[in-house]
Design a protein that fits this description.
This protein is α+β, with helices and mostly antiparallel strands. Among the domains are: 67-118, LysM domain (Membrane-bound Lytic Murein Transglycosylase D, Chain A, Roll); 141-290, Distorted Sandwich (Glucose Permease (Domain IIA)). Helix content is 39%, strand content 18%. It is built from six helices and eleven strands. It has helices at residues 12-67, 79-85, 91-98, 100-103, 125-157, 284-290, and strands at 69-72, 115-118, 191-193, 200-202, 207-214, 220-226, 231-240, 247-248, 253-257, 268-273, 281-282. Strands 3, 4, 5, 6, 7, 8, 9, 10 and 11 form a nine-stranded antiparallel β-sheet that branches. Strands 1-2 form a two-stranded antiparallel ribbon. Helix 2 packs across helix 3. The chain is globular, with a radius of gyration of 38 Å. The chain starts with 11 loop residues before the first helix and ends in a 6-residue tail after the last helix.
Length: 296
């Protein structure tokens, strides 16, 4: 029986057209969607690579931290001794290379209390450089005032002002330029003040410490530059109270006497030099006497 009312046209054709349109336009829409999916996948892959690298690097950093340690220099220490006792691979050269900014230009000059990094290079170049600069800068800025003060004092009160004996004793054992095969130069380059271990050692005049630490055959030593351009050296000390770059005054304690280095007994080996280095010695007794200090 026929249906009442108007017959409706079948929608199949319209539906087909819609599908065709969707199919035609769908291809155009599918391309950007596929591109976005690919970009997303590439981003995820890149992130995964970074995470993997970070995960791989982390154990290596932890391992390096775990094997590294810090060592505080003790009285009587020198780099090869530390390397042997602490089993440092690469020996004293490795320690020096890793701590050059802290030790300075001479690997034989290290002082008690100095912190050394064993097993890895010191924490950061910036930190090490900053530390070195901080330690060196005062020496340059303070040396001039110290020199000016000493020079002014000498000019106003005479040569007898501003100088003192390095120890509270004027008793001399071995004198200056005494010949002997036990000295590499063939003679004694300073004078020995006979004092027991633990005697206070004083700077003979105001100046700036240019080195403080191990000096090979000299044991623990301190070298100080004075206003007149001369340098005083104090050797075989049992302990040091100053460090390189520090300014000192006349009579200030710089350490204690001892028997470190090549010695036969406790004493203070004292030199006056024209440079901070071995081989530039002058008569220390004559120098002190020229500044009004009674010796011997």
């Amino acid at each position: 029986m026929p249906a009442k009312g108007k017959h409706r046209r079948p929608k199949s054709l319209r539906f087909t057209r819609t599908i065709a349109a969707a199919g035609t336009g769908g291809a155009a829409l599918a391309l950007p969607l596929m591109g976005a999916t690919g970009a997303h996948a590439a981003t995820q892959a890149t992130v995964a690579q970074h995470v993997e690298k970070a995960a791989t690097a982390a154990p290596a950093e932890k391992a390096a931290t775990a094997t590294a340690k810090t060592y505080a220099v003790k009285s009587g220490d020198y780099l090869s001794k530390i390397a042997d006792e602490q089993n440092v691979t690469g020996g004293w050269k490795k320690i020096y290379a890793d701590n050059r900014s802290a030790i300075g230009g001479d690997p034989s000059l290290i002082h008690p209390g100095l912190k050394l990094s064993l097993g890895h290079r010191a924490a950061a170049t910036h930190t090490a450089t900053h530390t070195a600069t901080t330690a060196t800068a005062p020496a340059k800025s303070q040396a001039t005032p110290a020199a000016d003060t000493a020079a002014t004092t000498t000019a106003s009160t005479g040569d007898s002002a501003g100088y003192t004996l390095p120890v509270d004793s004027s008793t001399i054992g071995t004198g200056y330029k005494v010949a002997g095969s036990m000295w590499s130069s063939g003679y004694h380059t300073g004078v020995d003040f006979v004092v027991p271990t633990g005697t206070t050692i004083k700077s003979v005049a105001a100046g700036t410490v240019v080195s403080a630490g191990w000096g090979g055959a000299y044991g623990n030593q301190v070298v100080i530059q004075h206003a007149d351009g001369k340098y005083s050296q104090y050797a075989h000390m049992s302990s040091l109270s100053v460090s390189a770059g520090q300014t000192v005054t006349e009579g200030q304690q710089i350490g204690l006497s001892g028997a470190t280095g090549n010695v036969t007994g406790p004493h203070l080996h004292f030199e006056i030099r024209t440079t901070p280095d071995y081989g530039s010695d002058v008569d220390p007794v004559a120098y002190l006497r020229s500044h009004g200090v009674a010796v011997g």
